[in-house]
Amino acid sequence: MSSIGIGISTTDTTTATGARTDEAAALIGGARERIDALDDRIIGLVQERMAVSAVIQEARITSGGRRVNLSRETAVLGHYRDALGKPGTALAMTLLELCRGRV
Ligand SMILES: C=C(O[C@@H]1C=C(C(=O)O)C=C[C@H]1O)C(=O)O
């Protein structure tokens, strides 16, 4: 670590995290590892959701029905909105687009 005056560190770690102390940089670095691991799990769950959704859509289309079921999508949107508020609706819309494409 080099330093500029008392208590101001200029390590690579603090630079990368935006922290102003080594203690904060260490906390942020550890928490970012947890976030990266959570993001990997979230991405895996989204991919699993896409696969399950595809099974449903293919079964419905093969049976002569339509790909999209708006009443079900409304229920999914409501579920996310109830849990996460307005941004939850936007998240659900993105998930639905990933799962059944743009309508
Ligand atoms: C998966 C389905 O098909 C489509 C995809 C949906 C989804 O990914 O949640 C919801 C409704 C349908 O538009 C379903 O009807 O459940």
TrEMBL record:
InterPro entries linked: Chorismate_II_sf, CM_dom_sf, CM_II_prokaryot
SUPFAM superfamilies: Chorismate mutase II (SSF48600)
Record's keyword annotation contains Hydrolase: no
Taxonomy, superkingdom: Bacteria
Enzymatic class: isomerase
Segments passing through the bilayer: none
An annotated Gene Ontology molecular function: chorismate mutase activity
Alphabetic keyword roster: Isomerase
EC number(s) on file: 5.4.99.5
A family per Pfam: CM_2
Ranges for domain Chorismate mutase: 22-103
NCBIfam families documented for this protein: PRK07857.1 (NF005894)
Protein name according to UniProt: Chorismate mutase
